[in-house]
Amino acid sequence: MTLRCFALLLFLMLPVSVQAVVFRASLDESVWEMETSRFFCRLSQTVPAFGRAVFEHEAGETLKFELKPTQKYQLEGDARLVARASAWQPGVAPVDMGQVSIHTESGGFVLGSELANAMLVALHKGMTPTFASDRWFDSDEPVEVGISAANFQSAYDDYLGCLTSLLPVNYRQVARTAVLFPSAAWRLSDATRERLDLIALYVKTDDSVKSIYVDGHSDNYGRRLLNRDLSKKRAEEVTRYLVSQGVPEDMITTRYHGERYPVVPNTSAENRARNRRVAIRLERE
Fold first, then answer.
1. pTM of the prediction?
2. Where does the record locate the signal sequence feature (predicted)?
C-alpha cells in the first residue's frame, strides 16, 4: 500500500474532529421535500445553518446534484466527498466517493450524474454523504457538510415514481428543430415522424407553449419556382402530421421560402442536404 493510500484510509477511518465545523440535519430536522411534474423531479433537504442539498432530474437530462450554501464563500478549493456511517450504523466503514471542486458561481458543489447517483445509493443504504473541506470561510478550521439519510426512504420511493412520468424531452431540446428531406422529396421519414411525435407530446403537455412556426426550405438545385413549391409541400406535410398527433391547428403558422434562406452555402452535396429542411420553432407566452 502506498503512503498516499494509507493516509487516505487513515483519514476515512478517523471520526470527525472535534474542532471541525459540522453542518448536518439532526434526526428531527431531517426533512426531505419532493417536487414533481412531467418536466422535472426534485428531491431536496435543508442543511440547517448552511444551505440546501438538491437532487434534480430534468426531463430529457441526467440526474444532477447541487449543494447550495445560503452564504457564499463558506467553502474554499476542493473537498472530499465521503459516505459516512449514520448514527444508527455503528461499525459501518466510510466510503470514499472522490474529490470535488467548489462551483465558483454558487460557492457550493454541482455534481454530475455519476456522483449524484452514487450519493443516492449511499443515502438508500442509510449512510451520510459528507463534503469535507480543510477551510471554513477564511479560517483554518476544517468543515464538514453532511446530507442526512433520516426519513429518506419514503421520499426516494416518491422520487422513483416521479421518474416514470417524466417527459422524454425538455423545452430546450424541442424548441428549435430541423428535419431534413432527400432531394425532390417531401414525404416524412420514420425518423422525422419520431421527432415530430416528441414535439407533439411536449406541446400537448406544456401549456406555456402558445405558438409553433413551421418553415419549409429547399436547396438551390433546379428551378426556383419548383423549389418554392417543394418547400411548401414539406412544410404542409409537417403541419399535417403535427395536427394528426393532436396539436391544435390554430397554434401553427406554416410558411415556405424555397431556396432563399440556406443555413450553409449550397456548394456541396452535404451542404445542400442540410438546406433541404423544415424548421420547427416553439414559442412560449
1. 0.86
2. 1-20
